[in-house]
Amino acid sequence: MEPLFTPPLRTRGRDIVDAHNKRLKLASINWYGGSDELFVPGGLDVRPRRAIAALIRRLGFNSVRLPYSDEMVAKNPPIPHELLAANPDLFGMRALDVFEAVVTALTDEGVAVIVNDHITNAAWCDGMNLCDSSWKNDQLGPLCRFRQTEDDWIAHWETIMARFVNNPHVVAADLRNEPRGLWGTMTWTAWATAAARCGERLLKMQPNWLMIIEGVSSANDLSGVRQRPVRYSVPDRTVYSAHVYSWSGWGNLNPYKGREYPSFARAMEQNWAFILAENIAPVWIGEFGAPDSPNKGDAHYWKNLMKYLEEVDADFGYWAINPRKPHMNERESYSILKDDWETLIDDYRMQDLQRLMK
Fold this sequence. Notes:
Glyco_hydro_5; Glycoside hydrolase family 5 domain-containing protein; two-stranded antiparallel ribbon; GH; hydrolase
């Protein structure tokens, strides 16, 4: 099997490069479930994890963003057999062991893994729960079902990443999904300070990991990087990340699905693309997506985003591979697979993603 890249990775200006100084453009897919109420990556009841990993590589993705919840790490519950039906060798394992088994299946396939702290309370991330709007929620007191301090958050990172210190294809820690605070009030300075502290702790464990820092306002806004970049004692570790959906655009009554291209492009430049243009650091668009049956706004947003990502040649991560959401087994309209976790929905989305890969 030909390697996709040679670890370890580092940053070189706006690019991520491997040990041979060759650019690795992250072409990622999100594989969720570990962050949700069932505590397990999706599809393990339907297909062997190694078959899913092989399919991901065959489709052209070189990396996977794999989310977890802090509650998953703290409680580490046993996973019911029915959720692992296609992977009987995992029967009897707890959540962290299953998560590690999925990581190993991916890295054995040569796929890079980006571990992501997605949410505090194990649940679907709907952006509404204040208890999940930040990496810590102890300031909210009894309002939160599962509470943690900043120290707890960092300790959970250390617990999960300790399993991957010697796996060179686990390449990055995406430190927190969509920090936003109360209705979008999270400041970049507060978040950058916490990300710097957490990243330093992780780099003491493994200095080769990349530290991925999402923007504030649900990962929409990285403009604070101009005044307050995040730097680590280990050089060339910082990667920034933005999320761009049709409804994105905090603080503006005109979301991206309604904007003409010049307005959309200006927003991208102001929010994150200046980091690429000025060769400051890589930016990975770690989440974006659209339904298999798009409405007019979805299609308009998608066309604009594909044009822009191609123009700036940004790293990307599509949401998502999962055909079903954990809660109530709800259909995931953004999925690129059918319910068998094998058959590709070969529509406009995958065709455009493959063009970006090239």
